[in-house]
Amino acid sequence: MHTLTRRGFVAALVSLALASPVLAQDWREEYPELTIGISSSENETDAITRNQPYADYLSRELGVPVNLIRGTDYAALIEAMRSGHVQVASVGPAAYALARKIMGEEIAPVAVTLDSGGNLGYYSIIAVRADSPYQNLEDIKGKSFAFADPNSTSGYAVPSYYLSTELETSPNEYFGEVAFSGGHEQSVMALVNGTFEAVATHWRNEEAGNIQTMERKGLIEPGSTRIIWKSPVIPNTPVMMLTSLPEELQEEFKTALMAFPEKDPEGFAEYTRGTSSGYSPAKHEDYLNVVAITEFNAKERRKNKN
Questions:
Q1: Which of 25, 152, 231, 269 could form an SS bridge with 124, CB 3.0 to 4.6 Å?
Q2: Prediction pTM value
Q3: Is the dihedral of CA 38, 81, 153, 277 positive or negative?
Q4: Are strands 34-38 and 107-115 parallel, antiparallel or unpaired?
């Protein structure tokens, strides 16, 4: 039988006192629930439905309820993170660049999505109606054009940048009419309906992209659009997180996220529509080119206003 001496008893009390604050600092006490922000080219109902398996999986793995909130636009989602109402978000690279500009090192990417082939990138495209005569960028000079959102990577930042650098012009100078549709689906719907003659949106490969998704959902007829321009590769959407979160929470989240495809393959497939093979670790330096593009566009806008 083990006998605890007075000295041993005191030592045990000291040890317990030192351990107690650590036990009391479990991140779940500070964050009894988490909120993930999403910004999607889909309508709100479809976006929430598709993301629900993601939230359900994280709730099980992290042991706290994980809620979803869809930002009305990229800026609204960034503001929700800045105010602390959202802890984690998946946004396009240009929106991440905006978040970094506003929040600095208070925010950082922790992972990047891989496509089904394990690739780390996607593309901005300019599309026209399939029955139009337009074949290249020169053909749509003076025509009506729609961007998606001012903070969209593929729907604004990249095509605007390449208009400036490749054609040495600005969208307002080059097109007869320029507008923001409010989202990728809205842009393509407006294109098909004849509101605009060309639009910018995102494309990954022959099977995946905004247009293919809209065709599968029955929103547009298959083959009703045609691509006339494709950008160089853009780094995939990052999952970004508040760096002020407890370190244990950050590490547990990253571990759970990386294991999502293996631990819940059905939920992961539903969430990604089968277009992703998983995640890869990410860091701010991976998005420096996108940051440079967004800064260039901002300077051009300021210059054109003067």
A1: 231
A2: 0.68
A3: negative
A4: unpaired
